[in-house]
Protein: Carbamoyltransferase HypF
Organism: Aromatoleum diolicum
Amino acid sequence: MGSVLEAPPFAAPLPLALRGPAVLAFGAYFKNALCLAHDGEARFSATVGDLDTPDACRRMDGCARALLAQDTPAAIAHDLHPDFHSSHRACELAARLGVPAIAVQHHHAHVAAVLAENVHPGPALGLALDGVGLGSDGTAWGGELLYVDGARFERLGHLAPLPLAGGDRAAREPWRMAAAVLHRAGRADEIARRFADQPAAAMLAAVLARDALCPPTTSLGRVFDAVAGLLGLCSVMRVEAEAAIALERAATDYLERVGDVPVEPEGWAIDGAGRLNLLPLLVALTDEPDAPRGAARFHVTLAAALAAWAAHAAARTGFDVVALSGGCLHNRILSRRLGAALRAQGLTVLEAQRLSPGDAGLALGQAWVAIHQLNEGL
């Protein structure tokens, strides 16, 4: 195997205003990349991809060896999920070196990566919007409104959860997320008819009635899947993010061809606990006959809802800086409209620049949190 650093994401180290002991961060499961942060700069490995094959795991191990040859870390950072290959290797290395292994919650790391790249010390609010990450309560997070202050974070709110009908399988089959919306809307009797081409459709209403078979998720990625399923754009994914990509393409086509669409005025609600409920928008789209128009309605209203949610938190907390992070920010319609809506309300918006907003940039956030933890003696 050649050098694992032959094609790094950046030609030069990324400047890091935060100083402290050296930390090697192992990233997460998807789009894995490692980061070594020390002495005011961050060095990255190549992105090795998802850790779902032995070859990818071996590449990650090679990246770790290459970065270790540059410096000896005072701590090893990794994702909170204990079963990732990256987490296993991080803990093994920390034990061998006799240094702390620091677990960093996935969405805390996402927001921290944006703060680090923008040289913002915090505290700040953060929207972390992605497919999935293990939450500190043991459930699947992915639509999070956080307050981040160095090594600490507080979950100020989250998307109202949807059930994963059939567990992890729902993340690959958008029709199951669409069925979950119908079930929540009191229209479970429509599932078998609307998705008659799916062998499991006839029994899914019964599955959704059993909470033990349908763990909840706050993931915005699964909301994208639900809408793609409801609009008939994607029922089963063959490649990663196929449903979200199809939804964005349909919306882009409509907005370029026809023009803007109005925001659904009653498409969301924010409750007293800070939860953002998008079910009214999803229900409004269940009977949309024009899929591209429905996709445009979804994007426009989603951006407005997320902006209102963050602005509500800013007014309540007094913090006027919002970091936008997570893989859903790869969606250009969402990122542009959300950023513009927040700025229009007088808020300062921080976004990924050279880094990916998704998991490929996560290790920087892990390192940033771990250095804060070491500096603060936590």
Observations:
- The longest strand covers residues 124-134.
- The radius of gyration is 21 Å.
- Residues 291-317 form the longest helix (27 residues).
